[in-house]
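Sample pair:
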Amino acid sequence: MATHLRNSHLLGSKLRSLRKTHGLTLEELSARCIQIDAARAPSVSYLSMIESGKRVPSGDLVGLLASVFQRDPHWFLDASEPPPAPPSQERPTATATVPFEPAFLFSKELLQAAIPELLAQTGTTGRQFAHLLIRSHQEMSRNDFPDLERAAEQVGERRFPLGVDDLQKLCKHHGLQLKWYDQPPILAMDGEHELRSVLRSFYDSPSTVYVNRELQKHPARLKFDLASHLAHKVLHGGDGLKSAHATGGQLGDSPKGPAGLSPQDVLHAWRDFECSFFAGALLAPKVPFRRFLTRESHRVEAGEKIELAPAMMMRRMTKVSPYPHWHFFDAYPPGFLRAVYRGNGIPLPWGNMAQVSDPCPHWAVFRMLHRTRGNDRGSQISVLREGDRFLLYCCHSRRTEDMAGNPHVLSVGVDLAPALQSHTGDAQAIVDSIAYACLTHGGEARIPEDAAAAIRGAAGVLNIAWIPDALERPARIICPRSSHCPRQEPCDGRMSGAREITDLRQEIIRKVKKAK
């Protein structure tokens, strides 16, 4: 290695290109090195000098940097050109868009008349529709709301972690008075279904927060509720236009309201989102929480050490990670996705407005939702067909109960293809090899060793521990729609004999061309 260090003229540019490709700051790269070998880890300033060519690292340090990026140490020292860093605007849009043509049918006046009728005819509430709009805005903006982040950091001064006592002191400092009450769970209607719901807390203008005493048994939930109500006081002066925190109800507000769109729906929904995002930024400020995830290799269970609920861990993970291609689901039986975030644009035919009538049983979130026994958490690598190509995802799911005792499943995941492309340069070949293995073994199969090695390397760079865990289990083919399932055998007998007209047209065209 010492001899090869003479060929280090490209080392700095290669290191800078790799670091930027994977979205790491110099501070985060230094932290990753400390995680592997604290004694040899370079400082931020020394890394900067390496990248600028002012310092030549030792052979041991090159080996340490190679471990972070899962590369052969000699790659840093050969004469090959550094990989180009992806342009900042290269990320795909999470939410699909359609052109509003012909334009005269999409005038403001026609939309104002058509949308309420559409919602009434489909049984969709205004609150559901508003949440869908907010979700699309959240996905297209990549979950980036710097004003809310700054406001939360000013209030909490980036202290991490915050305990229940800290939250109560912050509430008192901002003029909030807490009043405790006792209220057991009740039965509430959620659409056509009855479910247990409990009123956890609510805001009473101008400065009173009523809190269910039962929350004292759940510090992580109590912290979130207090942080959310504090957000309302800070952001909106405590005017009271904020939903109550009710566990078990539709979209967190129980019971479900009437279909249609009322003037207050969007305002309330946006206020709720702002307060929820503020609460996450207060309890898990970006920089210290990112360091925490680095130390814990993105393990969701690490939240137990700092009294952060799994949902908070997963949601903030999608925001603070340097890797942008994440998704998050919160599913309730029989097939509701109450919360959805798709920063990676994962194709879904359903969302938070309707129940999945026939969910693919091989999606990890639905497998765990309907499983009554076995592990309450696990990781899965999934292959999903979209048109003529296959996509590759890995998720970590966890079955839990809300405060009212209703079971639900939380799931956080990443799109593996961009990470594989950065690591190997040939992601699609790897994805196709896994898809072929699954297709030839009835829909699920052990991942071929070459592909598994590539995924381990990418996971090492991402520093996500549950991706290698998923390699211990077979990969599964999942479907965006049961009618498009690529498996040779129907899934649990759920597929009907119905066929898509588009598929039939293509079949006829192929037959006619073949006859010629």
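Confidence is low (pLDDT under 50) at residues 86-93, 250-256, 493-497.
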